[in-house]
Amino acid sequence: MHLIRPMIAMVGLTGLVASLATCRIPTPDGAPDSGQGAIQAGNLLPNASFELPLGEEPRQPGNWGDILNPLTINLAASNQQPGNWPPRRVAVEAVEGDHAAQVTLDPAGEAFVGHLTSPVVPVRGGQVYTLSAYVRSEVPAAWVKLCLWTRPLDWRRPDAAASVGQYLSFSGPDAESEVMEVSAGWKRYKFTFVVEHLVSRGVADLVVGGERPGKVWVDAVQLEEGPRASPFRTRYPVEVVLAGRRKPPMVHPVDQPLELVLASYNNSGSARSEEMRLKIETLKGAGVLEKRLQEPVPAGYGERKLSYSFQRVGEFRARVRSASEEPIGLEDYLFVVHPVMHRDLQAVTYSRRGRLHQLPAERVWIPWKDNEDFFADPQANLTVTRKGAIYAGLKAGAVAVTRDGGRSWDLIQASKTLLSVLPDGAFLNATREPGGLRVYRSEDEGSTWTALGFIPVTGPQGGPVTQLKDGTLVWPIGQPRPGIPHTVYAYRSEDGGRTWSEGYPIVPGGEPALLQLDSGRLLAVARHNPSRAPGEWEKFYRNEPSWRLWQWATSYYDHHRNRLSSYEKNLLMADSDDGGITWKNPRAVTHLLDEMHGSAVQLPDGRIVLMYVHRLPALHGGERAKVSRDGGYTWEEELYYLNTVDAPNWVEVLTALENADGGVFTFEESRRRSFPTEGQRLKGMWYINDHVTKPGYSASCVLPPELADGKPGMILTIVGERKGKDLPARMQAIRWRPLPR
Ligand SMILES: [Ca+2]
To answer: I need a surface site. Which of 218, 448, 517, 584 has the fewest CB within 10 A?
Structure first.
């Protein structure tokens, strides 16, 4: 059987090579004859004795059981994750060191099966390899198969009939040993094979099974070149894992030192004076910190605490290498550093090359709070009426109004929810009626309303209505239509809202807002959370750094399966030069996931300011802004932070989840995505939404000089703060301006 596989495997190469090209895991030369050269001694697998942490943190790139590496992600994307990811456990009689990997046998048809997948390792095309592992079982009549994949893993049973008589098709691993019986005592299992030509990396897949559920233990796994299994050794004499051990994970507030834990395993039997290098770079690859770690590494397992004055905000990657650049650190540690602002700070902050600075600003609380719902989300655009009033819809009919440019606010009660305010002071409302949305207009601050036109639409997500200079109303509405991805459409009315045009597609997405520039051009901003088709995973790697960061940070409190829904969750912009009929130049204007609800204003000097919420992780996320001089194509380097939202009860919430679940927080990632607590089904993300204060949405306008400080270019932004367990939903008004041109 195996003899015919090498020729067969050529078929899938075009797709594989194309997909590999988009991935960033370093690959060796995958050229046709990369296998040339002498046999290389040594174990290719890192952490192969399972002495270093294995998923205690959110899984980071590079460790065992990583479901998001380029070869294993197909399992997640096609719902094949194991119910329990193998943890590392103390094993009294481990073959090497003190720990072994524990694999749980899950139901699979009539049998019970478990998998232990290795990190991605380089392999040389056409080379002979031997894979070996020590295995023992708590379950009688257990078995093991040793496998190697050089293409995306797929554990679905291959259709044997499809291969009958077909010389050029097969599925399953590249190489797969016979089934070998496993007993209660440790025994070494070995498998020698060749890998296909024109491949450059692989994942070892140890498959164990039995007739009953239970645990199988694995230790001292070795993948080496050549036809024999040599005595086990670790990949390097010293290997390390860098961890943050934060709650919530991976977020470090800027007002604290950057504290990391370096876990090491040294199997040489005595302390080693091994110099290591810690490098921290931005996700875009710019180096920001490099440290030499020179203390001796103790024999066996050791931990040391690292603490640095970092004082930079942004998204980063930390890695450890040996002095000669060997990858002895098997995971990169991805992390974010958030700015920290006091809720009443009379300033906004901004970052330049990661360093924080302040700009004076005025900040007041709007006299409104809500203990019932978590939303604190004003509609995106504010309008300054001809009488100098500015209104903000809060919830239902509650409206805040200011007549002094946002310094002081009063509450009024409209009888319908405020959608938008026109420059003449009229309120607009959109009410869902059977089959669509009815527009209403009020001339008396929402007391009485007149019905206007109707737009037939299902599942609408309407943004604010914008009145163009020629009086035309343009209303962006996100909606699903049969056969078309969720899209934002522009509806136009040239008679004040009595009749509306068909919807003209703008961009994919929802949650839209429009701005007419001085030039007459219309600028649209929309939230973009695309979904993927089942089994589709290549797109994740097109946005790899920010997507990975999001995946690992959220996998802490939810299941990977849930978070694989989006490969992007950010903001798109597009332009229209004909009043909203034809849209062009669609472009991403933010690039991290969980950045949404964007809106823009134009300053009197022509610059565009984009405001949006940055949500992840919720601890000190907040409203952000950035400035463009060219109409939203390129952005100045400074990032403005209008507020940051603390969540003082995070640890309490995470502990409650841990106690309720008993699984997710030990990172064994049980199959349960929701779990019972006090008679209710509790789902991690929902529980967090209900209990942790987080940033809401924003609304902005440019103040005329008489409502500002006599000078042009001041922005009024309302920022929401969503309800947590102890704090109500509420909103602030901020009078601020970005740096001068
Ligand atoms: Ca071990």
So the answer is: 584
